[in-house]
Amino acid sequence: MHNRTTCLLSMIAFPRAAFAQQAGVVTAPQVHESSKSYTGPIFDVHLHTDPPASAIGVPNPVTGMAAAANAQALRDAVIQACKNYHITHAVLNGWPGTLQQWAESDSKRSILAPMVLDNDRIPVMSASNLRSEIENGRAGAVGEIMSQYAGLEPSDPILEPYWALAEAMDVPVMIHTGMSFPGTPYKGIPTSVSGSAIHCYWRMS
């Protein structure tokens, strides 16, 4: 593999500094008083566009919000929540079809990160095709790469073209390397590799 430095942040990883600067997002001053609430812009770095079936027709157990009737209704509700909570930019992780649908519905907020590997070892988007998407402004990041579910370590040669592309294009990569739903290795994904969290990797200068 090429020599590179990677940065790992558990569960939530902020995108590279250029993203934040381009979006006009600044670091909020630290607030010690519990009575104050942050009201500035929010940069969501991990928003899926392909919800699991369990998210449809089920009320939100935390907020009590009514259940979404279908994927389109859920998408519209998420976009409305982004508006309500001043989420100015969102990195969308999804398969090519739904990814474009979300982007068309909310283009100014969206930074597209195509998912390139399904639950097997055959990429659903080649590195060359992904390069074209990035060059044409239809993608701004890579992933979320789901290699864990195929039993692939991040260093597997199958992923090397994507690491090389991300390094060459200076874009962040999102890869699932940690926990998933309970009993994942025993529920149809026996090759799943254990890890610690969801990480975002990018080249550090």
Distance between the termini: 18 Å
Radius of gyration: 18 Å
> Count the helices. How many?
5
- Structural class given helices, strands, pairing? alpha/beta
Query: For the largest beta sheet, what order do the strands appear in spatially?
Result: 1-2-3
* Proportion of residues in extended strands: 15-25%
Low-confidence stretches: 1-22, 195-205
Which geometry do the CA atoms define? globular
Sequence of secondary-structure elements: HEHEHEHEHEE
Assign a percent range to the helix content: 10-25%
Tally of DSSP β-strands: 6
Number of domains: 1
- Overall residue-averaged pLDDT value: 77
> Main beta sheet, described?
3 strands, parallel
